[in-house]
Design brief:
Number of helices: 10
Order of helices and strands: HHHHHHHHHH
Mean pLDDT: 88
Largest sheet: none
Structural class: mainly alpha
Number of domains: 1
Strand content: under 5%
Helix content: over 70%
Radius of gyration: 21 Å
Amino acid sequence: MNQNNNNRIKYMAWIFLPCILAFILQYIATIVVMEGGAVYAMGTFKGSTVDELMDYMFDIILSTATDGSIYVLYAVVGVAIFVTCYNKMFMKGKSYSIKGISKNIPLTIVGLILFCIGMQYISMFLMNALGVAFPSWLEEYENIIESAGLDDEISVLMAVYAVFLGPVVEEFIFRGITYSAAKKLMPYYLAIFVQALLFGAFHLNPIQGCYAFVLGLGLGYIMYLYDNIFLTIFVHIVYNIVGTFFTELLPLASDTVYTLFFSILFALIVTYGSLVFLKNGAASVKNEADYTDI
């Protein structure tokens, strides 16, 4: 009995610890990179006055290169830590191999493609609707995107983070550790909800948090169906690539109320259909980590 209670406490803690640790890593990365930027500024300063030095230093510290360096450093260290934790706690007797996870590979591939398309539309509709309902949320979101260097003039470092490192570290945090720990304590559908809720809250702004929550529900369900983190990483990377570079290429019919309604309906049908395809394509649903085992 004591062992079971200890296990429950451990897994309950690991539902929330990855998020907390991620914020701590971001804070440490910010300090390290900014201190490095200050040292670099003092070493390369060519002026003659303190005011000039301070202006030069702040230009470096507040640059998009510094922001990108902070995110990349956090993600690299985070991947190393969270992959290690995930391997140690939840990969016993399991494999990262994608071989055998699908009984119908074409159906799974179509499902993944449709999911990425459908989720992009749902994200756009949510962002637009929330922006109209809460203009201050949209302004906050746009300011965050601009200050983070994720706008039209995205830097190389931020692009690397947004389309690769970010999805990898977030998948190991939420679909990896958080979901796996939650599934030890509750039914899978509640575990999916919990990790999606934390995934949305992790983004720290209402608009991004709302569509991240919805995306997290879908990714959590894919993780449940295929029990393979590489699959959710792939989907997350494709989703971010489209959202970062190709959003304007997605046709959006919203000239009238009717076209908007049918566009939303289309997005929901595509997303639902993708999940049906993915479910039918999954080789099996692995329940060895179910909460009833504790």
